Amino acid sequence: MTSPTLPELAASTFVHCLEVLPPRGHDPSRIFACLRALPAGCVHFVNVADSPMARPRMSATSLATALRLQEGWDTIVHMTVRDRNRIAVEADILGAQAAGIRNHLAVSGDPIAFSDRKPVKAVRDLSVFDLIRLCASLGQVVGAVFDPTPAARDTELRKLERKIQAGARFVITQPIYDEAIVHAVRTQTSPLGIPILMGVLPLYSAKHAEYLHRNVPGIQIPESLRQLMAQSDNAVLQGIAIARALRKAAKDAGFQGICLMPPFGHYELAGPILIDA
Question: What is the pLDDT of residues 96-132, one digit of tens each?
Fold first, then answer.
């Protein structure tokens, strides 16, 4: 059976994507077990990352194929321009098609760490706009990413318009934590006319919140939320509550869904966040 496309589902459903990190080895059984344990129906797509932080992991296409054929999950496969030339990109897309996978997310890819640059070199044969055009030309439904931070937003909106012109048919934002930004981003992106999914990355501890705020480009966490995490007797439950509130804010603002990005492989957080009490 062929997987639905994200725009097809978003036309009638508030979409829940769950981002997973491929294992560092060859065995995805822990991911399979975690996904099987989720409440039925709470996740519509498993969003498979492509070697984040430029560290080698099982290939995103291989894991997505296994999730699709062995476990029955509908998937979105990240595809970076960092690691492959055009031949390898096209080969991976054709392999995904053979498994009935129809959704890709075109990303530039995290930069290679300075300490790794001597033994490892980026390829970047394609720009992200080239990648979107290639995916679309091969019949895939391809999405784009968007940095919602206020300082970058005007530039990012112009880039996003170019990505849509190249063939992007849905968008996933970087994580947003400020409800004022939630509404501002939705207002500015709604004229684009394609589904926009808001990124939600649950906070796991006060240290985690501070690290994201100070070290990860594209993420800004209001001081009020960082104080909530620092003062909470149970930081994990506090992080779940914040993520639930952000999910509601995204739905109320008119986003077509969210992409939940559980920290540190804690996929068990998805149920409490995505299932209404």
Answer: 999 999 999 999 865 655 455 556 666 678 899 999 9
Cα 165 to Cα 182: distance, rounded to the nearest angstrom? 24
Residue at 7: amino acid letter: P
DSSP string, the chain: -PPPPHHHHHTTS-EEEEEEPPPSSS--HHHHHHHHTSPTTS-SEEEE--SGGG---S-HHHHHHHHHHHH---EEEEEESSS--HHHHHHHHHHHHHTT--EEEEE--PPPPGGGTTT------S-HHHHHHHHHHTT-EEEEEE---TTTHHHHHHHHHHHHHHT--EEEEEE---HHHHHHHHHHHGGG-S-EEEEE----SHHHHHHHHHHSTT----HHHHHHHHH-S-HHHHHHHHHHHHHHHHHHHT-SEEEE--GGG-GGGHHHHHS--
May I ask the CATH architecture of the domain 6-274? Alpha-Beta Barrel (3.20)
The amino acid that residue 86 corresponds to is: R
pTM to 2 decimal places: 0.93
